[in-house]
Amino acid sequence: MVTQITSFGRSGLYDWMMQRVSAVVLSLYTVFIIGYLLLNPDLTYDQWSALFEATWMRIFSLMVLLSIGMHSWIGLWSISTDYIKATGARFFFQSLCGLVMFIYIVWGVQVLWGL
Amino acid sequence: MLVSIYRYNPEKDDAPYMQDYEIELPAGKDLMVLDVLNLLKAQDPSISYRRSCREGVCGSDGMNMSGKNGLACITPVSEAVKKGKLVLRPLPGLPVVRDLVVDMGQFYKQYEKIRPYLLNDTPAPAIERLQSPEEREKLDGLYECILCACCSTACPSFWWNPDKFVGPSGLLQAYRFLADSRDTATQERLSDLDDPFSVFRCHGIMNCVNVCPKGLNPTKAIGNIRTMLLQRAT
After folding, report:
1. Are B97 and B161 in contact (CB under 8 A)?
2. Is the pLDDT of residue A7 over 90?
3. Which of A7, A102, B27, B233 is most buried (most C-beta within 10 Å)?
4. What is the DSSP letter of B152?
5. Domains in chain B, start-ordered, CATH in brackets?
6. CB–CB contact B196 A15 (8 Å)
7. Cβ pair B174, B166 in contact under 8 A
8. Would the pLDDT of A1 be above 70?
9. Is A29 assigned to a binding site?
10. Are B168 and B218 in contact (CB under 8 A)?
11. What residues does heme bind to (chain A) (predicted)?
12. Is B147 helix (H, G, I), strand (E, B) or coil?
């Protein structure tokens, strides 16, 4: 068995499952947003703002943000272990990805809750 | 016909190169690629390649023919020729020993890792461990693998991580023993595969299925291993 400490859940099965679960959340959100835009062709700022003020929409959006973080972490971790063979460079790339994802999530929370 | 062959003799050459040969093929006959190699070997005895049974059973002459892995002995020239040219290269991703001969060490190491033999801690019966016809049927499509390495060397995940990813061939065999009713080490075997590399480096691109000269389906076996892991953990 190959052990890995930088992978998302440190288990292949867990990472694999989380990637699929997050993919489902992301597709549901995409379908919802596209559907909403199609059903409201004359969308106004107030309508859009009201949508994102609803608690369920904020929860849904936060779920999507976390899913993006997880999904991209697992994906980029795979890519980095495939193509970056030097340990230092790989660890730097992985840390950078982690930092960017963390920033996006915190920033996303600020945007969603209008902090 | 023009045949272009990958040549590399580490004792003489600084770098590998492609050498072109012109060959007259007998009319009205579709030779196998191995026959062409044998004819060329008569012309130039320095060409090196592995071959043994010449009928697709031993798995010795796996090579890359005009971009697709396969067994030279059962691949007709008409299938392998592209634009009037036959390009022969060693299996990709493995170290080249000489010309079309590759070092299969890494491939066998992965095969060894999955413990390709029955593990059973119950007392051995007087004659043999019996299987029902239904239980035996589960091994069809798995046991036929001849370890030619065509699949694993067609897999990008195996190219990038040959030391960590078991590869399609090894995983087909792993499932062959997971599915065997006579094997009692299922839990141990699954625990050995539950890391981010051994099984989960497979992204299901199915290059293995595309090239397998025996028509086997490693991607399906890998899917079955994933299902077993998931059922055990949820």
Report:
1. no
2. no
3. A7
4. G
5. 2-102 (3.10.20.30), 105-233 (1.10.1060.10)
6. yes
7. yes
8. no
9. no
10. yes
11. 71
12. coil
pTM of the model: 0.90
Closest CB from A13, A77, A82 relative to B233: A13
Scan residues 1-40 of A and list those with Cβ closer than 8 Å to B: 1-4, 7, 10-13, 15-17
Of the candidates B148, B142, B9, B158, the residue with the CA atom closest to the CA atom of residue B75: B148
Q: What is the pLDDT of residues B44-92, one digit of tens each?
A: 999 999 999 999 999 999 999 999 999 999 999 999 999 999 999 999 9
Please give the single-letter amino acid code of residue B195: D
Contact A82 B160 (CB under 8 A): yes
Distance (Å, rounded) from C-alpha B17 to C-alpha B5?
8
DSSP letter at B7?
Answer: E
For B128, phi and psi rounded to 5 degrees? -160, 160
**Separation CA B107–CA B99 (nearest Å):** 19
Q: Which fold has domain A12-113?
A: 3 helical TM bundles of succinate and fumarate reductases (1.20.1300)
Positions of chain B with pLDDT under 50: none
Of A2, A15, A78, the CB nearest to B198: A2
Closest alpha carbon within chain B to A3: B195
CB-CB under 8 Å, A16 with B200: yes
At B36, the amino acid letter reads V
CB atoms within 10 A of CB A85: 11
A83 is in an annotated binding site: yes
- Cα–Cα dist B34/B14, whole Å: 27
CB B37 within 8 A of CB B47: yes
Cβ–Cβ < 8 Å for B220, A36: no
